[in-house]
Amino acid sequence: MVRAVGAGVVVIALALCACSGGSAGTLGASKACPLLEQLARTGQTVARTDVSDPAAFDQAMRDATTEYVRTARRLRDAVPGALRADVGRMIAAVEQRRFADANAARARVDNYAAAVCK
User: Fold this and answer.
1) Longest Cα pair distance anywhere in the chain, in angstroms?
2) Using one digit for the tens of pLDDT, what is the confidence trace for 16-49?
3) b vs e for 53-65, b when ≥16 Cβ sit within 10 Å of the residue's Cβ?
């Protein structure tokens, strides 16, 4: 059971951490870059949560999901228009805790981050 929960945490953390365009603290020229970094930091808080305490983990997930969605909505306005639908799909998937779908939706956003947020 603990192994399954741990594996779930890894998937969740990867989905929530995704969109980091570089190392933490590195800002690029785009106003989207700090928001991408914020998304990564939000996911990292979940990755550090003690999975042996289900109540604490559930609260951390709720808090991280709320913060992630709040930041992603701001990101949607900061990325080029061609990426806004992708960010919208990320938001919808995270709100529904479909983290694998969120991870898939962010592929083009990751490419943008890699190119712009050095």
Assistant:
1) 44
2) 455 444 444 444 458 999 999 999 898 888 888 8
3) eeeebeebbeebb
